[in-house]
């Protein structure tokens, strides 16, 4: 028979539907879309909208402003989201941990990665090894150029070569890829190979961004030389810039992994090999530190393997995993 104190404690416990509605609210608030949240949750939009409306009535505050074009958080909604997000994430992580103990990490793992050559060549091998070790995890990879909407597109993590601008995201530096300057033998025979960094200013350079010029900093030991390069062609695709260079349209900056086959077959030559451009960092990006077991197991595995693979491929001993940190932090945090 229950004592009076037991009954009092039971009355203080949150109703199960309240906890469920908290999770539903977090999903809608993060995506700022009922349709996207409903698709991710696998429930009808009408049911989700009704639950959120009832939840607002229970709380006694309007948490979301709805219009025909957009959905936005009210000031109360923003404050409430900040309070309950961690609770929902911790509850999900606890559940995933229990499932992982019972049968190992499992579920659908959705990854976004840039459509670069090194991804096709090296990340694919890492994912293949991971899948062989985790038969209960289904891995899906989308090749997408940055920026990637992790929440809106329902990604568990993204591989990035540029640090995202959103300060709410968590980044882990995995590796660094060595960069060099390359040109086709025919172009170098016609224009001459540069003997020093300043010589590059007289060359046609395939600029890696929209515009007619770019600023580069080359280093050799303790020396650093800042130069401005220019050329008649520019593009935001490393693969296309490589094709322009192979066709003899000018010099291009490229990571050594992407052009190693071109160098070995003689389609491209590296110029100024004693001088270094800043390496390209490789990051894993997530929306939270509280990750499900499937994502944590992949990040732990891929951080070690990808760092080793890229270091060996680029000849860069500095490559290696880093500590996760929130975007915008100067000091790394645990």
Provide an overview of this structure.
- Helix content is 43%, strand content 21%.
- The chain has 334 residues and is an alpha+beta fold.
- The strands form four sheets. The protein has a six-stranded mixed beta sheet. Strands 10-7-11 form a three-stranded antiparallel beta sheet.
- Helix 6 links the parallel strand 3 and strand 4 (137-143).
- Helix 2 (16-31) crosses helix 3, helix 2 (16-31) packs across helix 4 (45-59) and helix 6 crosses helix 10 (293-314).
In brief:
This protein has helices spanning 4-12, 16-31, 34-41, 45-59, 75-103, 117-133, 185-191, 238-246, 256-265, 293-314; strands spanning 64-66, 71-73, 107-113, 137-143, 157-160, 170-177, 179-183, 213-220, 223-230, 252-255, 269-271, 280-286, 325-326. It is an alpha+beta fold and 334 residues long.
Please give the structural blueprint:
Blueprint: H1 4-12, H2 16-31, H3 34-41, H4 45-59, E1 64-66, E2 71-73, H5 75-103, E3 107-113, H6 117-133, E4 137-143, E5 157-160, E6 170-177, E7 179-183, H7 185-191, E8 213-220, E9 223-230, H8 238-246, E10 252-255, H9 256-265, E11 269-271, E12 280-286, H10 293-314, E13 325-326
Helix pairs in contact: 2-3, 2-4, 2-5, 6-10
For this entry, give a set of tags:
3-stranded antiparallel β-sheet; 13 strands; 334 residues; alpha+beta; disordered C terminus; 6-stranded mixed β-sheet; 10 helices; single chain
Mean pLDDT: 83
| Outline | elongated
What pattern of helices and strands is seen along the backbone?
HHHHEEHEHEEEEHEEHEHEEHE
Strand fraction = 15-25%
Q: Which strands sit side by side, in order, in the main sheet?
A: 4-3-5-12-6-13
């Amino acid at each position: 028979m229950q004592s009076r104190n037991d009954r009092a404690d039971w009355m203080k416990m949150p109703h199960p539907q309240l906890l469920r509605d908290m999770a539903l609210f977090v999903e809608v608030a993060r995506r700022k879309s009922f349709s996207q949240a409903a698709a991710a949750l696998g429930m009808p939009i009408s049911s989700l909208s009704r639950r959120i409306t009832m939840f607002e009535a229970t709380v006694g505050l309007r948490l979301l402003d709805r219009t025909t074009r957009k959905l936005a958080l009210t000031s109360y909604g923003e404050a409430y989201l900040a309070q309950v997000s961690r609770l929902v994430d911790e509850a999900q992580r606890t559940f995933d941990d229990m499932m992982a103990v019972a049968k190992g990490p499992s579920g659908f793992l959705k990854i976004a990665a840039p459509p670069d050559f090194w991804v096709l060549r090296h990340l694919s091998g890492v994912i293949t090894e991971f899948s062989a070790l985790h038969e209960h995890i289904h891995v899906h990879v989308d090749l997408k150029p940055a920026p990637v909407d992790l929440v809106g597109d329902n990604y568990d993590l993204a591989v990035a070569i540029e640090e995202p601008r959103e300060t709410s995201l968590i980044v882990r530096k995995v590796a660094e890829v060595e960069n060099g300057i390359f040109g086709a033998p025919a172009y170098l025979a016609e224009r001459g190979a540069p003997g020093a960094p300043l010589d590059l200013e007289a060359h046609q350079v395939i600029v890696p961004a929209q515009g007619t010029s770019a600023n580069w900093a080359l280093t050799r030991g303790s020396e650093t030389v800042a130069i401005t390069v220019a050329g008649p062609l520019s593009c935001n695709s490393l693969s296309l810039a490589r094709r322009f260079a192979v066709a003899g349209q000018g010099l291009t900056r490229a990571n050594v992994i992407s052009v190693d086959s071109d160098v070995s077959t003689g389609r491209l030559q590296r110029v100024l090999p004693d001088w270094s451009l800043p390496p390209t960092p490789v990051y894993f990006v997530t929306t939270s530190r509280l990750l499900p077991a499937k994502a944590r197991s992949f990040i732990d595995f891929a951080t070690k393997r990808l760092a080793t693979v890229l270091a060996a491929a680029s000849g860069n001993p500095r490559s290696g995993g880093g500590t996760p940190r929130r975007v915008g932090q100067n000091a790394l945090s645990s």
